[in-house]
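Our collaborator T.R. sent over the components below with a one-line note: 'Predict the complex.' Nothing else. No constraints on interfaces, no templates requested, no preferences about which chain binds where. So this is a plain run: every listed entity goes in together, and whatever single assembly comes back becomes the starting point for the next discussion.
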Amino acid sequence: MKFRVNSEDFNKHKDIVIGNVTKWSDKAVCRTIGVDSFYHIEENKLKQVAQQYCVSCPVQNQCLYTALIIKEDHGVWGGFTPRQRRALLKKLRVRALQKGYDFTIWNNKLASFIYKNTQIQKATEILSS
Ligand code: SF4
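Returned assembly:
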């Protein structure tokens, strides 16, 4: 499941998020590791990679948030596999709807909701709930 938002405001936000990658990626634990390691097809291998590298990465929050905003379907981002990110988004969508936010309408409240709930500790809690 992806965000279905495709408004001008959302696209502007996405551009900012993409631009920010150059700022945080210098601190990424994976910056010296071949990108292929993060794009194994098997879920279990992806989870091993996440355990090995992402848990100690200082930019894990930014990485997960970026993956969700750019609608990245592949690879480990922020320590979350594609399957986990899809599950997280489903749960976030339900929680957002309960709060009266619609995933199809991008605004500051939804942006703030997504940002808060994709901080790693919170996202992990939500995923396991
Ligand atoms: S969280 Fe993982 S995938 Fe993201 S930058 Fe850090 S090590 Fe790389």
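Summary for T.R.: The chain has one domain: 8-128.
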